[in-house]
Amino acid sequence: MSAAVGTYCDRCGEADPADAAAHAGCRAARELEPPRYCAHCRRRMKVQVVPTGWTASCVEHGTLDSSAP
Amino acid sequence: MSTSSVSVLDRARTRVLEEGLGLEEADILEVLRLPDEDIPAALQLAHEVRMRWCGPEVEVEGIVSLKTGGCPEDCHFCSQSGLFSSPVRSVWLDIPSLVKAAQQTAATGASEFCIVAAVRGPDAKLMQQMRDGVKAIKEAVDIHVAASLGMLTQEQVDDLVDMGIHRYNHNLETCKSYFPNVVTTHSWEERWSTLKMVRDSGMEVCCGGILGLGETLEQRAEFAAQLAELQPDEVPLNFLNPRPGTPLGDQPVMDPKDALRAIAAFRLALPRTILRYAGGREITLGDLGTREGLLGGINAVIVGNYLTTLGRPATSDLELLQELKMPVKALSATL
Description:
The complex is a heterodimer of chains A (69) and B (335). Chain A has 69 residues and is α+β, with helices and mostly antiparallel strands. Chain A has one helix spanning 20-29; strands at 46-50, 53-58, 62-65.
């Protein structure tokens, strides 16, 4: 799953994830990392990585699942 | 091939390939210092050593974090320390999810499933979770269960044996002389003490570390020699994947040629050990690095994801093993 588009970068939690230059490193890193911040509210998510996938839960905005389309 | 490298690889051919003895520290250092043009010859020799003393099988393992984050220790590479401003939050895996992860791991053909917790050492709650989790796994799926729970007491060692844990992972992480630069909340000797208890208990010993922490080549050679002294059944080789918010977050990724030299050197230091590709191989060596490692002394892999970061899909590694005609080690076999 690629980085979720929202108000915040789901890797570093900073604003303006659409700024290609500012978050190019984050986008590259996300190929081998699950998201850590909620893209909607920048809360740190509870992330569980298992051998075949991951889930990332925001208390306000629900759970992302690597197996979801 | 340079003259000096001819001599160290010649010595290795006699001592390691023919006699099955590991290289000593001075020669390990020479391998780590080989010029670029000699890396293929070193990897080829390491591969021959692995094939002669371990065979063609590759041990496949999946790992999962039972308790993530919030660790009281300050291992400078680790995003799970509660002492750094890492984005990793504390979370526990429930037992149904643990069993499901074991089943998914077994479905890849893996014979090993390692349960890991980010702790200094297990408390009563974690030991109970292990008891319940291991029992549930053993009822549901046929796979060896290993554990990595930090430093242990003798009573905890005995409990893990009773649970049926067949291998215990406790990495020394780096050599004794560099360890205080990486961890200050406990000592290298405390880790060594746990490893001795594990060895004496009859559980298999899994002990490796992370390369690229800022150690010198001399310290890398020292580390390989210290591991050889321990004689672990398995050595997982990690390459630093610098994690945001940790003290080593800005450390550069290890040079891929240095990583390949290290793979050859560690195999030549440990000819009969399971040498496992672990975390950081993707970021350090890329996709091609997996092939080079498997043809350069590596005989085990962690498939799928790691504890907090993602790996190559298991299918990519399994297809590569098939292409290389390296059979996956069966559950009943021992290397």
